[in-house]
Design goal:
With about 200 residues, the protein is α/β, with parallel strands linked by helices. Helix content is about 35%, strand content about 25%. The radius of gyration is 15 Å and the shape is globular.
Length: about 200
């Protein structure tokens, strides 16, 4: 692994298990946890390969798997991957740093139709690695595929810095929305859902 991610350096001890427990509780309460997956599913042909990059405990990838897609989920946090394996059998869940991602070396050489970075993944990678993370993820996606990246705009990573990382990664911003259910982008939005393509 490379430099510690912000998930490690900016959260308290035990945060990973708290996060797992929080989403297990929300699922048990019947909360809607599938907004991101619905959008990504709509962008994919049936039975596509999809990369859940920064998958956490697997809630997005699990729903995509239920919709018939072949899912590989990757996260740097082994606690989250263990929870994904326990709660959501079916997809392949792997521990890996997105800034060093090489899935061919982990037995997954086939490219993906698309990739999703949900749940503020891009703001939790190690500072300064945003462009490399996008580049590494994009390298695993077919040329006409997509990356969907969602994050809160009030975090350390500004939209301008994100857009610089997008360009540095050889990608272009195709669409931006304010929510996962595609409400229109506006300057006062506190969340950005970005659809990226290879430039």
């Amino acid at each position: 692994m490379g430099a510690p991610t912000r998930w490690v350096t900016e959260t308290k001890p035990g945060h990973s298990q708290w996060y797992v427990d929080r989403f297990r509780t929300m699922a048990a309460e019947g909360r809607d946890l599938g907004g991101e997956a619905r959008l990504v599913d709509a962008m994919l042909a049936p039975g596509s390969r999809v990369l859940d990059a920064g998958c956490g405990p697997g809630r997005v990838g699990a729903i995509l798997h239920e919709h018939g897609h072949a899912v590989v989920g990757v996260d740097a946090d082994p606690v989250l991957i263990e929870a994904a394996e326990q709660d959501h059998p079916g997809p392949r869940w792997l521990v890996a740093d997105l800034a060093e991602l090489d899935l061919a070396a982990m037995g997954e050489p086939e490219p993906f139709a698309g990739a999703v970075l949900a749940g503020n993944v891009i703001v939790f990678v190690a500072a300064g690695t945003e462009a490399e993370v996008l580049r590494r993820v994009a390298a695993h996606v077919v040329d006409d595929g997509f990356l969907v990246v969602g994050f809160h705009t009030d975090r350390e990573l500004t939209l301008a810095a994100f857009e610089d990382a997008v360009r540095d990664a050889g990608l272009r911003l195709e669409h931006r929305f304010a929510t996962w259910d595609l409400r229109g982008w506006h300057d006062g939005a506190d969340f950005a859902v970005n659809v990226l393509r290879k430039a």
